Amino acid sequence: MTTVLVLNGPNLGRLGSREPDVYGSADLVALRTALEADAGDGTRIDLRQTDDEGELIGWLHEAVDSGTSVILNPAAFTHYSYGLRDAAAMVTKAGLLLVEVHLSNPHAREAFRHTSVISGVATGVIAGFGFDSYRLALDLVVRRSAE
After folding, report:
1. Hey, is 44 helix, strand or coil?
2. Where are the beta strands (DSSP E) in the chain?
3. Which candidate in 102, 107, 114, 134 is catalytic?
4. For residue range 61-93, what is the model confidence (pLDDT) as tens digits?
5. Phi, psi torsion values for 73, nearest 5 degrees
6. What is the rounded distance in angstroms from the CA atom of residue 53 to the CA atom of residue 70?
7. Torsions phi, psi for 131 (to 5 deg)
8. Does 80 participate in catalysis according to the annotation?
9. Of 58, 55, 74, which Cα lies nearest the Cα of 11?
10. CA 91, CA 113: separation in Å to the nearest integer?
């Protein structure tokens, strides 16, 4: 069985109630349900959320140690967390997939959101499609894992 680690950064635990016009009205439980439905029998979704940068970095270290591909929504850490960037680089340097996702399109928002310190070390980036950003990332990870 393949495990996909789906990591979510700060404030994403408030999905469904935080700025639904930007992030949608569904919560992380709904995201987990959608991803599990898409994953199929051979894939396990391990979805986590934290507001703590250190915990998120620790989860990326865990992915390296366990050989697990990652779908990462770094949220606000996207724009300034060099510690998170370095941990994300460890994932891809280990030959694992790390797909950076965003619910909204950062480039269509405030200027400070246009820069990602994560994108340069990620396998790829999917943004602007709401929960479908995660679903597209999952499809890619599952297909690449089967190769």
Report:
1. strand
2. 2-8, 43-49, 69-73, 98-102, 124-127
3. 102
4. 999 999 999 999 999 999 889 999 999 999 999
5. -105, 95
6. 16
7. -60, -25
8. no
9. 74
10. 23
